[in-house]
Amino acid sequence: MSVLRIGLLGFGRIAQLVHLNNLAGFPGAEFVRIAKSDPTRREEARRLAPKAAIFDDYHHLLKMKEMEAIIICLPHALQAQSAIAAFEAGKHVYLKKLIANGTADALLVLRAWEKPEQLG
């Protein structure tokens, strides 16, 4: 059985209580990377997801080829730019919040998603 390797951008309350817990018991998924800028939250991530590599900048996390999918749990203002960066890195993306703060940014996210070279 193949395993989907997932990265988590952000490690706030919802990421901890919902995403980490939901996927912890799912045999087809594994958290391999977590990115969080706040040092206290990074320590919490180390404690709660000891097998995951922890980064202070999500751009470093997106460079990892072995990671196939990203769950974005960042503040609204960072949604569009992080989703675009993840699509450009060839990752599958799950946005837990709004796609973007406005229509213009949402269209940029959709364009990044639609690029043929990212589809496969």
Radius of gyration of CA atoms, rounded to a whole number: 14 Å
What's the helical proportion of residues?
40-55%
Strand order of the largest sheet: 3-2-1-4-5
The run of helices and strands is: EHEHEHEHEH
Model regions low in confidence, pLDDT < 50 over at least 5 residues: none
- The N- and C-terminal alpha carbons lie at a distance of 21 Å
Largest sheet, in brief, is:
5 strands, parallel
Could you list some keywords that capture this structure?
5 helices, 120 residues, five-stranded parallel sheet, alpha/beta
Please tell me about this protein's structure:
It is built from 5 helices and 5 strands. A 5-stranded parallel sheet has the order 3-2-1-4-5, with helices on both faces. The longest helix has 13 residues. The protein has 120 residues and is of the alpha/beta class. The protein is globular. It is 43% helix and 20% strand.
